[in-house]
Amino acid sequence: MRNIKMSLQFDGSRYQGWQRLGDNDNTIQGKLETLLNKMTGENINVIGCSRTDKGVHAKALVCNFFTDSSMTIDEIEEYINRYLPDDIVAHDFCEMNERFHSRYNAVSKLYTYTIDNNKYQDVFRRKFTSHIPEALDISLMEEAAKVLIGTFDFAAFTTMKSKKKSTIRTITDIDIIKENNYIYINFKGDGFLHNMIRIITGTLIRVGKGEITAKDVQFILESKNRSIAGPMIESKGLCLMEVKY
Questions:
Q1: What is the reported pLDDT for 24?
Q2: For the chain: N or C, fewer Cβ within 10 A?
Q3: Mind telling me the catalytic residues?
């Protein structure tokens, strides 16, 4: 079978996230599989590099699927984009060897969380930012972010319930940039736990407001206790930017 790789750009506002949920196809995976099944006459399973949550966006979510279709890459690309909803676009199509797996072969992922730090939110960016009007001290947030860079057990920063799955992850960089009253927090790592970035962001916002310190973040990390970490911030400010292989 042929192994087709592609990247997706999507506005996740009206979707239940990436992963297909039973009979509910209002997911990115569900929309793609319904379309590919019709295109090929096969039962296609699309493998995604990341299971984005409800409302999370992507500029480059990599996925792959196997097919016996004889359609050319250009024909597949043209068909998919003709019938996808206008808030999903597929690009960068290519044929890979049969061993390629978009999730298992990924070596790093880059996510950006965007905060609108103006007094009033920009209505034209409201679907892609979280509005935090209070003043945030970026230098304090950067100090606290340094505590989280490295390989640690991030159990305090996830809503994952399973005790069988590892909560150890590596964050290689957290970069915080403020431009024109917008704050961009870039997270780069080998992978992220369920809701991990949103909880870390909520915790860093507490630091920026002066409610907790970098030492408190260190204590939270070492505690592995979700209940003492910051709140999980809303999903709409989060976007998957890049996946490297």
A1: 61
A2: N
A3: 53
